[in-house]
Amino acid sequence: MDKKLIYIAGSSRTGSTLLDLLLNNHKWIISIGEMDRLPWFMSQASLTCSCGNDFNHCVFWRKVQSLGCEKLGVPPYTPLLIERSPSFREVSIGTISRLLYKALMIQPSKTIYHLANLSLFRPFQKAAQNCLFWNDIIREVTDCPVVVDSSKIAFRMKALYFADPKNIRIIHMIRDGRAVAASEIRRTQRPMKIAARRWYQAQKKIIFCLKGIPNGQIFRLHYEQFCSDPNSTLQELCDFVNIPYQENMLVLNKHGIHNVGGNPMRFRRGETDIKLDERWKQELGPEDLDTFNGIAGRLNRSFRYS
Ligand SMILES: [Zn+2]
User: Fold this and answer.
1) How many CB atoms sit inside 10 A of residue 95's CB?
2) In terms of CB atoms within 10 Å, which end of the chain has fewer, N or C?
3) Can you name the residues that pair with 4 across neighbouring β-strands?
4) How far is the CA of 300 from the centre of ligand 1 (A)?
């Protein structure tokens, strides 16, 4: 089958780690997690790969680096994943150039994007090419034609679309914004005002960046529907990617995985149930709900949350 990149877009805490793990069960799919953060994770000794080893000693990422070195004809174990970084957030460029680049990502036209092929944006184009390079290496190491990148960031999604429009499929993960905000408050003790704005801005950026991407390449996945009936959702996703459904996809397996970042639940090997988390209904009081509605209620309702 043809190679493909599945890109999971959405705000944090929308169930992307759960989806990542279930997709990874398919014999043709390899999930790599939040690829945008890989170079940063590799440079932090205290952070570990989902397999439990630190990134520089993880067998999988070492194999990926080795094959990358071989392809480029450089000595083995050069920290290539840092030198040929697949991260857009680490591109070193001035604030104005970064803002201009984001404006270029929000507009829908591929033609305008290619016309704006200026040296100003070359570091970003290089990052996009690095992503394509590493995805091909990962396909070769795992023998899986479909790579899943769950970085979630809207601008990265659009940059990868512009770099290789034919092979990308987007899963836009949507969850009730009140649940996402409650999760953020629980985790960071931020006030609702901040949590609601962060959800609103993340979703708005995705909506803008999706413009120009053909509808047939976008799958809108509601977290609540996914957790209530994962079987049907995974079957629909397989149709969307044009691969046969496999029943073992439903098993929440947390062993031998090498995802970058994501929800800490990936380390809780004993938790294997797929559960709908609706704690927000007990946690948020009338004042929080009013604050959320004032900031993001309209957008939330547009996703069919009443
Ligand atoms: Zn690993």
Assistant:
1) 7
2) C
3) 146
4) 36
